[in-house]
Write a structure and sequence with these properties.
128 residues, 22% helix, five-stranded antiparallel β-sheet, Thiol Ester Dehydrase, Chain A
Length: 128
């Protein structure tokens, strides 16, 4: 997924505010699921929700106003109720800016653990 950095994404020092990376990761994760044929809204309508259990971000180099980021998303591992997404964020020059991992669990509308749909599990391919 490509993400252009605008002024509102940055802090007073002109670099992307660290908390905004979480928004970028959510967007990339949603786009990844769309590419697999699943919309977050469609899953929610079916009573399938994913909540963040753990988030790690390793900031290696700052993104700045005007950059165009490439966010690569993949599945690191998954089980019946859990997905772990991995991300690499690079700038337009190919420089690695950040690596991240989001650990999510599948819950129903009452926020109780539930298995994710078989159709989704079948499309998830962990990286080796």
């Amino acid at each position: 997924m490509k993400k252009r950095i605008y002024y509102h994404d940055t802090d007073c020092g002109g670099v992307v505010y660290y908390g905004n990376y979480l928004k970028f990761l959510e967007e990339a994760r949603s786009e990844y699921l769309e590419e697999l044929g699943f919309s977050v809204k469609g899953l929610m309508d079916q009573g399938v929700l994913f909540v963040v259990r753990r988030q790690e971000v390793d900031y290696k180099y700052p993104a700045v106003y005007g950059d165009t980021l490439e966010i690569k998303t993949s599945v690191k591992e998954h089980s019946a109720v859990r997905i772990q997404f991995a991300y690499e964020i690079k700038n337009q020059d190919g420089r690695l800016l950040s690596k991240a991992v989001t650990d999510m669990v599948c819950v129903d509308k009452a926020l109780k653990l539930r298995e994710m749909p078989q159709s989704l599990k079948e499309k998830l391919t962990p990286i080796m």
